[in-house]
Amino acid sequence: MPLPRLVRHLLGALGASGLLAGCAVTTPPPATPPAFTVTDATPSPLAGQVFEPASGRFVPVDEALARLAAADFVLLGERHDHPDHHALQAFVLDALVRAGRRPALVLEMVDEGQEAALAAWKAERGASLDALAQALDWSGRGWPSFSFYAPLFATARAAGLAVVPGNWPLARIRTLVRSGPDAVPEAERAALGLDRPLPAPAQADLTEELRASHCGMLPETLLPGMAWGQRARDGRMARALADTGPEGGVLIAGSGHTRRDRAVPWVLGALAPGRSVLALAFAEVPDGQQDPRAVPEASAAPVLYDLVWFTPPLPRPPPCP
What we know:
The protein has eleven helices and eight strands. It is of the alpha/beta class. The radius of gyration is 20 Å and the shape is globular. It comes from Pararhodospirillum oryzae. Residues 65-268 form the Haem-binding uptake Tiki superfamily ChaN domain.
């Protein structure tokens, strides 16, 4: 644990014991997560539980929060359209703040071309969250309802957290997909942790995931560029986290960007060696499912996430015709 973090935790312990009279006492994190808004006809007993894939054990929520509070970088992987994933992300961020952490908030949904809009909103006292949504053109950029993410911005503002863009502008992403590695100068590739190839199994798995996510209808010639675009986004998010300073950061992103074997945690291993990373995925568990290993995110070979927080599934139409 870095010295500043250690000192802060020691001071927090002293304050909790009453030995620092007159000093602010860190408020403990809330013990009860928010109730699920998505319900099942046959709910799984796994919903609401936190699972550790590496050990195969269930982890109490309080223990999970303590581990999250101790990590330099916390990665919270979501299904973008699932309201309960967003409610739990807000719960975790609030718990970290209550535990004395002041991490930067890094979001996949905000790109580096929107830094000025973020700064203007933060500087204008009393500016509403609706004003921020308009400044970021949230509804026009294809993300789910801003109401899902508003509690994160509200906590960040109340706690004085930096809000950091985690993504490339859309035009740059299109160039990355079209032109591949040639679209990124060599020095920038190194700064983004993109100067080393993925392990062959991870690269093959990424390509297959992209193929399946497009229902097998994507021309094979486009897959290498799509895979590079995904890696470039991982590098951009990892760089944003690595630059957050001693307080570290919390990443809000799709769970494909937060898996340990090939995404942001893998890149952070090169960009921020020696700093701790905890990757948590919020994962939908099918109706009635009782085996945690049946949920793909809870795989043990390879281990994709440090922790998996199970939620009910959100009803959706079949993804492929």
